[in-house]
Amino acid sequence: MAPSGGRSSLTTACSRAPSGCKPRSTGLCGVNHLLTINATSLKGKSYIDVGNRNHVMQISAYLGALRRRSDPYVDDTSLEFQFRAKRFVRIRNLIDAVLAEQERCEIVDLGGTEKYWAVAGDYLDRRRGRVFVTLVNTEPQVVARPDQFRAVRESASDLTLFDGRGFDLAHSNSVIEHVGSRANMRDFALNMRRLAPRYYCQTPNYWFPYEPHFRTAGFQYLPKAVRIAMLQRFALGFFDRIEDFEDARNVVRDHDLIGRRQMAAFFPDGEISYETVLGLRKSVIATRDAGARDS
């Protein structure tokens, strides 16, 4: 099934990707070159018309030369791991504030995985028996450390989630942009605010020029039809080439970046701050430190 509508185009600068790319990551190579991409629907078939054949050859050569790299959730040499480690200072401060008030800190991690918490491995090891994390995810999980983690297969946007139960800290890292709609984002944020007096919610900033999921500069600014067509044509970021239109459309729908204004609306009682890289605002973070929960 092809996207309906007319023709739209994007002219974007190409740049060489750094060595050690992510699995299935792509970019448009060739320093100081410009690539014009046209997403077109013609006779029921969607395709991307690349204006210069030389650029097509450059892209093909680049895609073929991509190397796999280790998992950034456990590879402490990866930039992603290092960014998370720096952000974890804020989370650690919230946990320490809880532990200063009471013996145990119970965390609910909306959309979380045990693997993410590798960034806090030493910190958690030193607080074994005092910090416990409940992981909420729509995907089934088997935890390796049941003394510190418990996995619950539920939707983090379900307003009946843990009805009548409270936690000390609600946590979420790069999840709210994946829940599928602005209404779901609102419910996700309501759960974070409801489930604990303290919360930490981080999301990639819409206004940061590099889209982290698709590893493509400016990808989030393109019309949806163009993004869908690109996913049907190329392997981008964490994704192999997605030939089916409906599948590509669902991926675009489930990767909806937001900025400070939306985060402030979703978390009106929180403090909004940024994670910065080279002076640019890479992530938007909402936090609340409201003291101990009611017993």
From TrEMBL:
Q: Can you tell which superkingdom this protein's organism belongs to?
A: Bacteria
* InterPro entries hit by this protein: SAM-dependent_MTases_sf (IPR029063)
Region Disordered, as annotated, extends over: 1-22
GO biological processes? methylation
Biased composition of type Polar residues is found at: 1-14
UniProt GO molecular function: methyltransferase activity
- UniProt keyword annotations, A-Z: Methyltransferase, Transferase
Q: What is this protein called?
A: Possible SAM-dependent methyltransferase
